[in-house]
Amino acid sequence: MTDPGGTLEIFDVGNPSAPTGVGTVNTGGHPSPVAVAGRYVYVYVISSTGNNELQIYDVTNPFSPVRVGLAVTDGIGYSGSSLAVNGRYAYVVNGLSSGNDTLQIFNISNPSAPVSFASFR
Q: Does the domain formed by 2-120 have CATH 3.30.300.20?
């Protein structure tokens, strides 16, 4: 779960009728959207600096999530965005102020060093 104040919140949903917050981490911007794969949480962060980011967190210990990777995306400002993870790739739709959105693909096989290797308009 995310909040516009810049916090990624981790919940234990072992009891779905009563989820319990177990960990938080400040992302430095508005974290939205989020994808989960294995022990990693992938977060598209809308930054107040204008450089939006793909941030990767290791949640092996959900009480203390740790950012392990970061890559700057093509996105600018508060335009729409989407995020999906499949295998060793993260797919990011960047909303651009010009209206010419991009699909950007990152190789995430090494979560501590995500690499943008394709971008399509």
A: no
